[in-house]
Write a structure and sequence with these properties.
Layout (H helix, E strand, L loop, with lengths): L3 E8 L3 H16 L5 E9 L3 H11 L3 E3 L2 H6 L5 E4 L6 H10 L3 E4 L7 H14 L3 E3 L7 H11 L6 E10 L15 H4 L3 H17 L2 E9 L4 E3 L17 E3 L5 E8 L9 E7 L7 E9 L2 E6 L5 E6 L9 E4 L7 H4 L9 H16 L9 H20 L3 E2 L7 E7 L5 E7 L2 H7 L4
Helix pairs in contact: 1-10, 4-5, 5-11, 8-11
């Protein structure tokens, strides 16, 4: 069987650029039914040594220090944008204007306004997009979504989510770009809370109103020369400068009337300086008939409680298995775990499938805008102490998943404007 050649371009050759590259390479054998041959064409990085690494080690045919070369390359069909936050708006708009489908890491912009600017460019160019919302893809999370869509938890009453990490808990961790507002925008809100806002809305539907609270725990950090290291570098002594964005963010939320969790309320928290959790990204969802829990540190497990009485009342541990999401593509049975890198392969598959005109099960720029609006509203609320309503705009949509006994998926798309159908390229 002949395979369709997909030319891949990469912008920024860091850790995430490496992950995207390996994800594209894995498509050829993990998802042979896609019928694609992902070919690594050209990679760009401002650091010449990383650009050379992309060619010599990762296997790109060409490398460059100018990302425009990637967008102009005639053999490039899709582009991965893995650069720091402050470059996302510029590069996302440029990719759209070049007519290139792109897979971009979050946050797409330093707040809602920049993210909407990228969305406007995408809508005008009608290119496919996928966002690095990788915490959608654990099979246990997909199964949790099924359970809720089927009504097994009853009416959803409340949700609790927390994304706690320790990657910035060291006070002498260097003042990288992540702590400078010009380059990062918000702090943990854009970095981790954006993931949580997307994950919760992916499962339960749109958030309509928030009130937020933020705190900068470590107020100064030692200076790091731009591009010379990361926030993981510990610097003893030397000059210190202020941290310009928040280490902790929290919010109370209400769900919209058109959400699966209509009428439900909840709390969402994120911290980058928590001592103890390494990557404890979790949610708890409660309903009138039951509840469930998931934690990324045990991403192949789901805790589920159904019913209020009986011998088996309380939580039971369900291990991920081939009946859940794409688990069977990676492992033959429960107990042998999927990992983080596998989630990026699933993400790549959904991106390429949508790019080729197949099922649109990928996250897209509209999802990025939705999450960014929640994060920006939380930050604004933290500054003024008021509840803030989330404006959905004219192109808001959400997906309602229904599943039969064989876990076949049927998707109902709800839209509030016909324009959204055209902008999103979703068949109704």
């Amino acid at each position: 069987m002949s395979k369709k050649k997909i030319g891949v371009g990469l912008i920024s050759v860091g850790w995430m650029g490496n992950l995207h590259t390996r994800a594209y390479q894995a498509l050829n054998h993990i998802y042979p039914e896609l019928g694609v041959d992902a070919q690594l064409i050209i990679a760009a990085d401002t650091a010449p040594d990383r650009a050379k690494y992309a060619q010599d080690v990762l296997g790109y045919r060409e490398s460059t220090t100018d990302y425009h070369d990637v967008l102009k390359h005639p053999e490039v069909d899709v582009v991965s944008i893995c650069s720091p936050n402050f470059l996302h708006k510029e590069m996302g708009i440029a990719a759209a204007q070049a007519g290139k489908a792109f897979w971009i890491e979050k946050p797409v912009g330093r707040g809602a306004a920049e993210t909407i600017a990228v969305e406007d460019a995408v809508n005008k160019a009608q290119v496919e997009t996928t966002i690095g919302f990788n915490y959608r893809h654990p099979p246990a999370v997909e199964y949790a979504k099924k359970i809720i869509a089927n009504g097994d938890l009853g009416e959803i009453t409340n949700v609790r989510g927390s994304y706690f990490a320790d990657y910035s808990a060291e006070p002498n961790g260097a003042l990288s770009w992540r702590f400078i507002r010009e380059f990062a925008g918000s702090g943990v809100l854009g970095d981790l809370m954006g993931h949580l806002a997307d994950q919760v809305q992916y499962i339960l539907g749109p958030i309509s109103e928030v009130i937020g609270l933020t705190k900068t725990v470590i107020k100064e950090r030692p200076v790091l020369q731009m591009g010379s290291g990361t926030h993981f570098d510990v610097i003893e002594g030397g000059e210190k400068k202020p941290v310009e964005n928040e280490d902790y963010g929290g919010m109370l939320i209400r769900f919209a009337d058109n959400a699966i969790a209509a009428g439900a309320v909840g709390t969402l928290e994120a911290s980058r300086v928590a001592v103890g959790p390494r990557a404890s990204y979790n949610f708890e969802i409660y309903g009138t008939k039951g509840s469930l829990k998931w934690d990324f540190e045990r991403l192949n497990e789901l805790e589920l409680a159904i019913g209020r009485q009986g011998a088996n009342v309380g939580y039971q541990r369900i291990m991920a298995n081939p009946y859940m999401g794409d688990f069977g593509k990676f492992q033959p049975g429960s107990g042998t775990s999927m990992g983080y890198d596998d989630l990026k392969v699933v993400e790549a598959k959904k991106f390429i499938e949508a790019f080729l005109g197949g099922a649109k099960l990928n996250s897209n720029i509209h999802d990025a805008v939705s999450a960014a609006k929640v994060v920006t509203a939380a930050e604004d609320s933290a500054n003024n102490g008021q509840w803030i309503k989330i404006k959905t705009g004219d192109c808001q949509f959400f997906l309602d998943f229904k599943f039969d006994a064989n876990y076949e998926c049927m998707i109902t798309v709800y839209l509030c404007a016909q324009e959204c159908r055209n902008a999103s390229n979703i068949p109704l």
